[in-house]
Amino acid sequence: FTADGIEDCRKACGGHGFLVSSGLVELSNTYLQSCTVEGDNYMLPQQVVKVLLKLVGAMQSGDAALLKDHKGTDMEYLIAPLMALMKQNGGVPNKSMFVFPTTNGNAQDFLDVSTILKAFQHRSACLLLDVAMQLASNMAKSSAQQAWNDCLLGMARASRAHASYILLRDFYNGLKEEEQKSSSSCLGPNEIQVLSQCLTLLGLYWMDQHLEDFLQNQSILPSSIPHLRQAILDVMTKLRPDAVGLCDARDYSDFRLKSALGKFDGDVYPAIMESARRDPLNQKSADGGVGMGYDESLKKLIVGGIGEYKNGLSGTVSRL
């Protein structure tokens, strides 16, 4: 999630984001290794799903002792939706028992955080049960190793769905705890309101990014998609006045940011030019020219149109 966010920020800055002086290049190169530090990005999702499948197995066996071990863990939220899915007779095996309510028939339907969390719960349960069923089906006709390998893409989706719900849930619970502290909280009512809008936007953004998962399990109806996307625009409109404040809230110094674009004084272009002047390639050479090889190669192409390139009998003058 973080690596994708850094890359989105770099693209949003256009060509400036590609400059080393933007700070985003170094930040991206430093952080990207975290996505592959285990050697294979599918290794961690497999480990997550392997633990989640134990919960599915415990529920299928009906062993109350095994099921009790999963209560009080981050997997407990899956028990109720999985149980509802397993009790379905006929119908689609991975069809969610939850459908996003559309009481108002407009964007307001998607602004309740608790309902967003419930949709993410059922998405995670449906994708997990889908993996369990696919794995059982594959093992009946191939080796265990091949059956497991054939489920890797589904495991990646199920693992991401589980992680998404955990992050949203912890964000929601953290804000609730601060709200209950009232006067002893480090956050005031205005800060909690803005962060709640950030939480809503994050949940809706992830729903839109992975809309196929919600449509597959039918927890969101196709007719509700325009309302979902309108809700995203509405929340962004509310957040826009606080965007700069949210970015400055961490109070990172210019020394730590090392970014011409993120300077505290906002004087971006002089900072970019100063960074370019300090680049070794732009330092004057020993004979007074600018940069090594400039006088020998580039100057004649740039100054006075001296460089002539002949094609057959006709001569052409080229200037950069």
What's the arrangement of secondary structure elements?
Layout: H1 2-12, H2 24-31, H3 33-36, H4 43-61, H5 64-69, H6 79-86, H7 113-139, H8 144-149, H9 152-181, H10 189-209, H11 211-216, H12 225-239, H13 243-248, H14 254-257, H15 268-278, H16 294-302, E1 308-311, E2 314-317
Helix pairs in contact: 1-2, 4-6, 4-9, 6-7, 7-9, 7-10, 9-10, 10-12
Describe the protein in words.
Strand 1 (308-311) and strand 2 form a beta hairpin. Strands 1-2 form a two-stranded antiparallel sheet. The chain has helices at residues 2-12, 24-31, 33-36, 43-61, 64-69, 79-86, 113-139, 144-149, 152-181, 189-209, 211-216, 225-239, 243-248, 254-257, 268-278, 294-302; strands at residues 308-311, 314-317. The two termini are 42 Å apart. It is mainly α. Residues 309-316 have low confidence and may be disordered.
Which characteristics define this entry?
single chain; two-stranded antiparallel ribbon
- What share of the residues lie within helices? 55-70%
Beta strands, count? 2
Strand order of the largest sheet: 1-2
Structural class: mainly alpha
Low-confidence stretches: 309-316
Q: How many angstroms does the end-to-end distance come to?
A: 42 Å
Rg calc: 28 Å
Helix count, DSSP H or I runs of 4 or more residues: 16
Mean pLDDT: 83
Roughly what fraction of the amino acids lie in strands?
Answer: under 5%
